[in-house]
Amino acid sequence: MTRIVGIGHLALASPDVDRLAAYYTEVLGFELSARTDGAAYLTPELAHHAVTVQQGKESGLDHLAFRIEGSLGDTEQELAAAGIKAERKTDTYGYFISRENIDKAGEFLVGLSVNVMPHLKGQDAVAYARDFMAAYPADKTLLDEWDASMPPFAGRGCLVEDETTRMHTLMVANPKTNTLYLFVFEAPKGQWSEAWPIGEEILRLMLLDDEI
Predict the structure, then answer these.
(1) Best CA proximity match to 36, nearest among 61, 17, 14
(2) Is the pLDDT of residue 210 over 70?
(3) Which of 76, 150, 186, 209 has a CA-to-CA distance to 20 between 20 and 30 Å?
(4) Is 0.70 surpassed by the pTM of this model?
(5) Which of 55, 88, 121 is the last residue before a domain boundary?
(6) d(CA 202, CA 197)
């Protein structure tokens, strides 16, 4: 039986994205992790986003995502057995590499996060990656940026930091399959010189299949 273990993220629609995003950052203490044309991604913790504010004609809830135990396939079967139609629109797969106990803490201080968004529908992966990386350092200090393209993959990379954490970020798009990959290696600034050689080696050895 599927068990919900937490809320994945909350997506809100608003005719005034800037005003609602400002409420989350200035009043509720969230951080702006990225800004794209028509959407703001906000987080209270070491995750890319927990709340999304996106352009809409009226204010309201766009969708609510949950984290579950088990596979999406098993969940679809359980819903179908209960007479509920399930439609899978997109899949985002998350992978984490860290020495820390992620299951216990729910987050880590030093490690690599990989988010894979395969076969995007209604969006161009290359354009999305470009817009995302252009807005990504919104509330962070940009230390470096570079072209991370390696045909057929198109990508951008940047090194940013906030008050406590430094992040090496790569957003890669596969135009053949319209798939996105987001890689973020992060560590507290005081531990970066020790942690980054390990993160650099992990990323150097990572291979992407251009048919996926």
Answers:
(1) 17
(2) yes
(3) 186
(4) no
(5) 88
(6) 9
pLDDT digits (tens, 9 = 90+) for 99-134: 877 666 567 889 998 888 888 877 888 988 888 888
Domain count, the chain: 2
Is residue 58 domain-shared with residue 114, that is, in the same domain? no
| Among the ranges given (33-37, 63-67, 92-96, 140-144), the one the predictor scored with the smallest mean pLDDT | 63-67
User: Residue range 179-205: average pLDDT?
Assistant: 92
Q: List, as one string, the DSSP characters of 15-70.
A: S-HHHHHHHHHHTS--EEEEEETTEEEEESSSSS-SEEEEE-SS-EEEEEEEEESS
- The verdict on 111 and 189 lying in the same domain is yes
- What is the extent of the structural domain holding 62? 1-88
Whether 78 and 110 map to the same domain: the answer is no
